[in-house]
Amino acid sequence: MNEQERAEAVGHCKWVDKVVLGSPWVLTPEFVEEHQIDYVVHGEDLCLDENGKDVYSWLKEAGKFKTIKRTEGISTSDLILRIIKDYDDFIRRNLNRGYTREQLGVSYVKEKSLKAENTLKKVKETMEERFHDISEYIKKYGPWEGLKIAITTPFAHQEGHPVNTHPPEEHHQVHSDHTDGKDLTHDKKIAD
Q: Is the pTM of this model over 0.70?
């Protein structure tokens, strides 16, 4: 958040009457009087000037200083680390939603790198699915027949169109042969 955004967020607290932008790091009694500041609020960490003196000591003595207690388990550093850790996922997700790299403040190289990672991930998933299909064919039909079926069967769910991954069923057709005036009937296997 920039300074304006932070001031806006703090200004919405019900106990805040006014937020003074651009205030100095070390407050003076004149600055506090000019802006009619009732309290200065800060976290528990100690703030020292270049001489090692607590910059808020005079406000504490005057009863105009309030401390915000640290919430156990929550820190700005932890939040920033969580955001940074998931940064690539955030960018990838929003690129897939249709945001441009310019809107996300991402370089051309970063955009292409994330898109290439997505493509590789899809290829890996497809290959894992195909390997699973091949393994199932081998278990069901044996190594040679299973491999033959796997090789001749297109990739399952290729380009979002599910295909029948089962091998062609054999059908039996009765065929009539007229030889020497005799009607010979026999089964002939015909594949789809």
A: no
